[in-house]
Design goal:
Elements lengths: L1 H16 L4 E6 L17 E4 L4 E2 L12 E3 L27 E3 L11 E5 L9 E10 L8 E7 L2 E5 L15 H4 L1 E6 L7 E7 L3 E7 L9 E8 L8 E12 L3 H22 L1
Antiparallel strand pairs: 1-14, 2-3, 2-6, 4-5, 5-14, 6-13, 7-10, 7-14, 8-9, 8-13, 9-11, 11-12
């Protein structure tokens, strides 16, 4: 019985500890029409300009030709199906998130696109990385990953983009570049993001203490903008994580090991 307890506990712990990272969230920005659609189709929302104008609230920036999900093809389906998205597991006519436009439009200024449709339970998962495919028509690195924790927004200090310009939507599928942020809570890797929809969208200061370890209740991308007419495109936003071992399994194997050590000591005595 003792050996069985130890064996079962060790097996359960090993199964959980050695599990490879897995994608817990993947958004392919699917849409089922031949025209551009709003980010809300896939449970994302967008804002642009320092005053965080709602991308769907009205005005020229609300036009789906400047901020939305494109009807053009997104990244290769080789990345796998959508995960935890709405509509669920849809690949047909898959597009990509885009922001574009000249003076007075989203493409010239800062913007943000996020979703709160999935919560990353940091008690159940240890985040490994966040990634997306970038296919901008310029090569400056301007996108940041953003997360919301305890009601506050944070942006990565590191910026991302593509090394080779993607001139048109038709070239995105073949030329988009994978950008990956290796997860860390180090203070030097994050800065505050002052984001209140309809009011404010500005970057704050670099953190002086580590990023909070509580659940991530929303996430997405933020861009500083270019100050010139441009088109930014993103697809396949993904979060990879490793399951955290359940305390019951850890306790089981530790109790079994303790019993075995006690048994061995008693035999020696």
């Amino acid at each position: 019985t003792l050996l069985v307890t130890v064996f079962v506990g060790a097996t359960l712990l090993s199964m959980q500890v050695t599990q490879a990272q897995t994608a817990i969230y993947r958004e392919l920005f699917a849409q089922l029409t031949t025209a551009n659609v709003a980010p809300s189709v896939d449970s994302w929302v967008g804002s642009w300009s320092p005053t965080a104008i709602d991308s769907q609230a009205g005005g020229s920036g609300a036009t789906l030709g400047y901020f939305g999900i494109s009807s053009s093809a997104g990244n290769s389906t080789a990345v796998g199906p959508a995960i935890n998205t709405t509509p669920a597991e849809v690949n047909t006519n898959r597009g990509f998130l885009f922001v574009s436009g000249g003076a007075g439009l989203p493409g010239t200024t800062r913007w943000i696109a996020t979703t709160s449709a999935y919560t990353v339970d940091t008690g159940a998962y240890s985040v490994n990385d966040m990634s997306f495919y970038s296919g901008n028509n310029f090569i400056a690195s301007l996108e940041h990953f953003v997360v919301q924790i305890d009601g506050n927004w944070y942006a990565t200090v590191q910026t991302f983009g593509n090394a080779v310009s993607v001139a048109s939507a038709s070239g995105f599928a073949a030329n988009a570049q994978l950008d990956t942020f290796t997860w860390t809570t180090a203070a030097s890797a994050w800065e505050t993001l002052n984001y209140t929809p309809g009011t404010t969208l500005t970057v704050g200061s670099v953190l002086t203490s580590a990023l909070p370890g509580d659940n991530i209740t929303a996430f997405g991308l933020y861009s500083d903008g270019t100050g010139a007419s441009s088109t930014m495109r993103a697809d396949t936003f993904q979060i990879d994580a490793t399951p955290v071992p359940e305390p019951s399994s850890v306790a089981l194997v530790l109790s079994g090991v303790g019993l075995l050590m006690g048994f061995r000591r008693s035999r020696k005595a």
